[in-house]
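Exercise 7b. C-alpha cells:
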C-alpha cells in the first residue's frame, strides 16, 4: 500500500507541474501573440498603372488557426532599390477577410517589386517574420524597344554595355537619351559610341546591398525605364560556418561545419586557414564534397580570429 501511495503522490505532483507549465505557456502566448500572414495577389505580373488586388490570410502561429487579435494588416510596396513606395492599412471586413489593393503608378519602371505584409504584433519579432513576395511590373513600351545588356564583373568593378534594337524589326536604334542610375546616386547620361553601344563602368561598393541598376531611355519622345540586377563575379563565393551546438566554447575542442556556394547557388570547393590574433596558423581546412566540410580546433581566445579562404582547383 505504501508503494501505491507514493506513486499516487508522485503522479499528483507531476500533474501539477505539467499544468503549471501549460498555464505559463498559454499566458506567454496571450501576452506576446505569434502571428503568421500570407498575401494572395490576383496575378503575378502587372502593367504599370494597373491595380494589384490583395487578400491577406492571418493565422495564429502555434495552432495555424485564424487569428483575430490584430485589427489591421499593414501592406507595403518596395521597388528593387528597396525604397518604400506605398503603405496601406487593411481592416477585416464583416466576415474577417483582410482585402485591399495597391495602385501601380504609370511612371513605375519595369522590374521586380516586393510586397511586404505584417501586423503590429509581428514587429516585436523582427522583420524576418514579415511576409514577402515578388511581383513583376512591366512597361507596355517594352513591346517596341528591346534593350540588350551585357555585364562584365571583375571583383567589385562592373562594366556595362547596352545596345538597343527595335523589337518588331530587329534593327539597332540609338535613343535620344540614355541614363544609368545606382542606389543613392544621381542618374548619369551616357553617349553612344560609333556602333551605337552605350558603355559605363563603376565600382560596386559593399554598402550597396541591393545590386540593381536603373536604366532610363527616351526614344521618339517616349520614356522607358527598367531595373536590371547586377550580376556577381563568376569567381566570387560565399562561405557560412556552423559551430556544432551553435556556439564556440573557449579552451574546448570545437567542431565547426561550413558550406561554400558560388553566385549560381552551386557548391564551390575551397581551402582555408584559421589564424589567431598573432597571425599564427591554428588549423588548415578544405571542403570534402559539394563545398561542405568541417574543421576542429582548440580555441584559446575568442577575439580577433581571422579566416583566409580561397577556391580549390578540382582535378
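Sequence design result:
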Amino acid at each position: 500500500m505504501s508503494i501505491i501511495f507514493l506513486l499516487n503522490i508522485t503522479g499528483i505532483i507531476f500533474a501539477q507541474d505539467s499544468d503549471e507549465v501549460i498555464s505559463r505557456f498559454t499566458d506567454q502566448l496571450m501576452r506576446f501573440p505569434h502571428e503568421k500572414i500570407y498575401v494572395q495577389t490576383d496575378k503575378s505580373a502587372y502593367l504599370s498603372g494597373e491595380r494589384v488586388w490583395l487578400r491577406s490570410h492571418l493565422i495564429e502561429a502555434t495552432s495555424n488557426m485564424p487569428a483575430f487579435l490584430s485589427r489591421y494588416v499593414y501592406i507595403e510596396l518596395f521597388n528593387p532599390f528597396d525604397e518604400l513606395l506605398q503603405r496601406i492599412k487593411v481592416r477585416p471586413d464583416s466576415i474577417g477577410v483582410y482585402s485591399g489593393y495597391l495602385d501601380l503608378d504609370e511612371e513605375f519602371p519595369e522590374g521586380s517589386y516586393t510586397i511586404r505584409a505584417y501586423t503590429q504584433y509581428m514587429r516585436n519579432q523582427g522583420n524576418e517574420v514579415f511576409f514577402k513576395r515578388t511581383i513583376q511590373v512591366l512597361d507596355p513600351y517594352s513591346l517596341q524597344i528591346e534593350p540588350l545588356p551585357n555585364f562584365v564583373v571583375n571583383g567589385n568593378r562592373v562594366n556595362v554595355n547596352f545596345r538597343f534594337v527595335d523589337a518588331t524589326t530587329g534593327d539597332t536604334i540609338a535613343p535620344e537619351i540614355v541614363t544609368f542610375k545606382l542606389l543613392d546616386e544621381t542618374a548619369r547620361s551616357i553617349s553612344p559610341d560609333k556602333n551605337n553601344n552605350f558603355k559605363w563602368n563603376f565600382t560596386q561598393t559593399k554598402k550597396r546591398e541591393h545590386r540593381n541598376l536603373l536604366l532610363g531611355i527616351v526614344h521618339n519622345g517616349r520614356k522607358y525605364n527598367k531595373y536590371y540586377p547586377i550580376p556577381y563575379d563568376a569567381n566570387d563565393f560565399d562561405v557560412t560556418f556552423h559551430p556544432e551546438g551553435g556556439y564556440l566554447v573557449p579552451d574546448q575542442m570545437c567542431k565547426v561545419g561550413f558550406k561554400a556556394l558560388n553566385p549560381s547557388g552551386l557548391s564551390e570547393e575551397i581551402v582555408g586557414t584559421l589564424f589567431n590574433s598573432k597571425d599564427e596558423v591554428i588549423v588548415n581546412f578544405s571542403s570534402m564534397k559539394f563545398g561542405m566540410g568541417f574543421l576542429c580546433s582548440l580555441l584559446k581566445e575568442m577575439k580577433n580570429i581571422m579566416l583566409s579562404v580561397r577556391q580549390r582547383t578540382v582535378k
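Instructor comment: The chain has a mean pLDDT of 86. Residues 238-311 form a domain with the Immunoglobulin-like fold (CATH 2.60.40.1930).
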